[in-house]
Amino acid sequence: MEQAAKAQGSSCKESLSEQLMKPMRKMLIIEKQGKIITLVCAWVLIVTLFSLLYFITSKGISPFVNNQITLAEFFSFEWGPTASAEQGGPFYGAMAFILGSLAVTLGATVVSAPLGIGAAIFMTEIAPDWGKKILQPVIEMLVGIPSVVYGFIGLTVIVPVIRETAGGLGFGLLAGIIVLSIMILPTIISVGVDAIQAIPRQIREGSYALGATRWQTVSRLVVRAAIPGLMTGVVLGMARAFGEALAVQMVIGNSPNLPASFIEPISTLTSVITLNMGNTVQGTTYNNVLWSMALILLLITMLFIFLIRFITRRREY
Amino acid sequence: MTDKISIEDFDLYYGENQALKKIRLNIIPNQVTAFIGPSGCGKSTLLRSMNRMNDMIPGVHTSGRIAIDGKNIYDRETDLVQLRKNVGMVFQQPNPFPISIYDNVAYGPRIHGIKTKKKLDEIVERTLKQANLWDEVKDRLHLSAMGLSGGQQQRLVIARVLAVEPDVILMDEPASALDPISTERLEELVIQLKKDYTIVIVTHNMQQAARVSDKTVFFLNGEIIEVNDTEQLFTHPEDQRTEQYISGQFG
């Protein structure tokens, strides 16, 4: 009897200390596991990104360090990779494509930024119920449509319309701008909607309480306060437009012309890369020049990202 | 003395829920009237009814009348812009606009059509001085208002309200987010302002009501239980429920 009681007592004591220690140990192990798993994920991402950057950069600068072409030649306007030596060739000037990419991106932004910001204001301030019920799903669908479908619609609808109304072949800067505008519109709208909705209700109330009308409140205060977010949407849209290859390639015409006219066929960096990457031999100057163009794409896209960082950093105004 | 605001049989419903029941109240000009009562008693709802800020909440409907200078603001043809210009409001949380201090104060005059810089400068300086904020901000008028402290922000909001030249200023627990020193400065300001304006202040803080107000109104469950001179109400409450509330037995 006494022994049993003693044993029970001691086991009780043990189990209390065990109870206090065990979950602690278990918890520590789980904590450590979580930390390791997320750390591995982060490192996989970082290593992938940096090897990608390294790969593109080393390939991109190889035609210059191997003295295949000079920077001046690369940034010239003359493109003729198959021109024979008697003609003075081959020429690897990519300037027309850089300008083509910039022109089509700027054009698409000029069209879709006001449209997208206007739609975002409508959806949040003018008709929030209607906007949420109908426009939100429409925008989500627009984001989900693959770019080849946009390109196909551009090819079968937009290009013929341009050909008949404006003349020319229909392929060119204008067709590219229209297709890209539609593609980047949902990005600008949805980021814009988030930005406008993030403006606190108290600020609107303060404005109404001073006797401001809804439109005064929206135009003078809400939009002004949401400008960093709205600009972020626009720059994200620009980055998407700048990097889009497939849809652009289907409507741009793919001739190495300067983007001097809206209805003449031109080329962009992306369209040249996708069209020629498969047809050129690894290690040749032609192939390496395509990598240099990819590097230019990467650098300009990074510039867009830094731009977003810069805009969103100055949140207070 | 004629009443600045007279409220007659005013009912307000949030959908089916009656938040204010047959409110009758007269508010005297150039006085501070305090609304006290436990949470959910309707004091803020009545305050927000006096410049029709409740209109924006879906499902709200009202009956009865609230007359300001003899004119019923719930009339069909009431111009909300003019009403809110004359009846300014200061909210519980300081809500400066995320623009510069100068633009905050100039916002109201600008939307009401004042454009000349000279005039705006004059208004900004005068109202910031009235709000006891000028000396603290005169060197950084063009910096963001978000950089001010909570107490400074609340005084900025008051200057912003003064800039549209209201007659009545409604304050919805204006000091509840402020520290004691900022609260004291705000209370001084309220007492200063009453010589030019009619002020209605909602507060949870009974000492505050006692310090700043001339008249106190005690609310309970959407009804007015007692209205009296502040000193009278706090020292000799007539209703038992008022006495229980001010002595801290509920609320």
Written account of the structure:
- The complex is a heterodimer of chains A (317) and B (251).
- With 317 residues, chain A is mainly alpha-helical.
- Chain A has 11 helices and 2 strands.
- A two-stranded antiparallel sheet of chain A has the order 1-2.
- In chain A, helix 4 (128-144) crosses helix 6 (173-197).
- The longest helix of chain A is centred in the first third of the chain and has 64 residues, at 2-65.
- The N and C termini of chain A lie far apart (80 Å).
- The model of chain A has no long low-confidence stretch (mean pLDDT 87).
- Chain B has a single domain (5-246), classed as P-loop containing nucleotide triphosphate hydrolases (Rossmann fold), CATH 3.40.50.
- In chain B, 36% of the residues lie in helices and 25% in strands.
- A 6-stranded mixed sheet of chain B has the order 6-7-8-3-9-10, with helices on both faces. Chain B has a 4-stranded antiparallel sheet with strand order 2-1-4-5, covered by helices on one side.
- In chain B, a hairpin with a 2-residue loop joins strand 1 and strand 2.
- In chain B, helix 3 (101-111) packs parallel to helix 6 and helix 4 crosses helix 6 (150-162).
- Chain B starts with a strand and ends in a 5-residue tail after the last helix.
- The A-B interface holds A 200, 202-203, 205-213, 216, 220-221, 224-225, 316-317 and B 51, 53, 56, 80-85, 88-89, 91, 93, 95-99, 107-108, 110-112, 144, 146-147, 157, 160-161, 164.
Mean pLDDT of chain B: 92
CATH topology of chain B: Rossmann fold
Q: What is the string of helix and strand elements of chain B?
A: EEEHEEHEHHHHEHEHEEHH
Lateral arrangement of strands in the main beta sheet of chain A:
1-2
Subunit arrangement of the protein: heterodimer
Question: Shape of chain B from CA axes?
Answer: globular
CATH hierarchy, class of the largest domain in chain A = Mainly Alpha
Strand content of chain A: under 5%
| Low-confidence regions of chain B | none
> What is the radius of gyration of chain A computed over CA atoms, rounded to a whole number of angstroms?
29 Å
Subcellular location (chain B): Cell inner membrane
Membrane topology (chain B): Peripheral membrane protein
GO cellular component, one term (chain B): plasma membrane
Protein name (chain B): Phosphate ABC transporter ATP-binding protein
